[in-house]
Amino acid sequence: MSGMGIGLLVFISMFCVLGIGMYYLVQGSGKRYIIAGKSLPFFLVGSMLLAQSLDANATMGNSTGVFTGGFWAGFQFPLGLALCLFVTGAFYAKPLNRMNLLTLPDFYFRRYNWFVEIIVSLLMAFSFAILVAGNFAGSAWIVSIVFNIDYTWALVLIALFIFIYTVAGGLYSCAATDIVQIYPAILGFVGAFIYLLAYYGWSNFSAAIPANYTDLSGLTSVSNGALLNWAGILALGLGDVVALDFMERVFAAKSPETAQKSCFYGAAGTLVAGIVCSFIGLMGLTLFPDIADPRMILPTIAQESVPFIFGLFILGGIIGAGASTADGGILGVSAVLGRNILQRNILRPLARRREELQSQNDKPSEEAKVISDRKLLIISRIMAIPVVAFAIFLAIVKPEPGMLLVLAFDVVFAGCLVPLTLGIYWKKANTPGALVAVVVGSILRLILFYKIPESLAGLDTMIPPVVSLIVMVPVSLMTQKTSPPKHEVIDQIPDDADVIAGIA
What we know:
With about 500 residues, the chain is mainly α. It has helices at about 5-20, 25, 30-35, 40-55, 55-70, 70-100, 105-110, 115-145, 150-170, 170-200, 200-205, 210-215, 215-220, 225-235, 245-250, 255-285, 295-305, 310-345, 350-360, 365-395, 405-425, 430-450, 460-480, 495-500.
């Protein structure tokens, strides 16, 4: 086995051992498992958001996009993700953290009703399951190359180790592994860039870069992909506001102020690491202009053009980026399926009985709280099994989700962002308005996917959220008397019993 292989094996083993060790911090609690007991400090939350943001797209996909299509074709990924964290910190982190939520669909249940919650939960769960599959595939691809093993075996091994440490410690495992994944990765990216710049000089690289690769035509010229680039930036910058993994970390912050500052920290770190990966992609035009597979540009530079330690940190960072996004996705989807679909709605008769019992008392017993919390933990862990199984299957049959992943997230962006935003900031937002916004926005995105001309590709991402807003406002205004809005829930902070039972 090569030195690089041994180093990566040590990295992967460390992730797994550290993640499994967090099992003892869960203490049999669903709330601690899903959002770490809403107790995490600034550095942990900020680092987790940074790690979640710097996924395979923002690193390897970024360098590949720059190498093949110009600066904006790749930099759109970290730019959009950094914009998302900034927007989340500026407008969403404080009010959502204050609401004491466990999952993002909890907001739609509390602000609107159970039916809106179910639709949103299914859309988010499906899109994030695809994201998990894509990150499984990206990490497995690197492992299969470095260790010279079959892709399918690499995929199964990577998926199993991420699954094991995620279900062991929940968000605590995500926090611990994110810390040891993200900072060595950033050191590798920045160190490799500085080394290449010092060794070759920028003039060596600039001579091989086409003029249209670094000018603003990628944002201003339709023929140079401006619509697609803007669509990518906006889809990530605004659409990822409704991302389950980001919001898990926002909810886990110990205070609204901590949640906000952590978002800004993650945004700044994403920009720094992202722009470095973009420049490494440009450097690849000189170092490996005839590379057979452009996806290999960052891994090839890591193995052949920079000192061993930087290359190890880069490859470990790519695997870690996939792992950090996958573990957040597994946790988010399994929690949504377990809490928002299974526990609250499929087992609804039990929930109604619980409501009746609680209505007879000012507060449920401590024993009832503990039992409910443990049930949530068990259900969430069990639901991780079909999530990982589906992701493995999808990563085998479609190792590059491509447009399927884009479409899935665009549908969530189209239907779910407006009800979330208006639900926080507009007191007249109500259930009929939210329902029509989710349905119309999502269906319109699916229709445009098949109908929009190729020359206008990108508008199919940008138009549906606007239409979602246009239909929600009048429907909400016309149904104020028949469906009074529940805007007061934004300012209510339910106690732990209400959070766990899901009846706030």
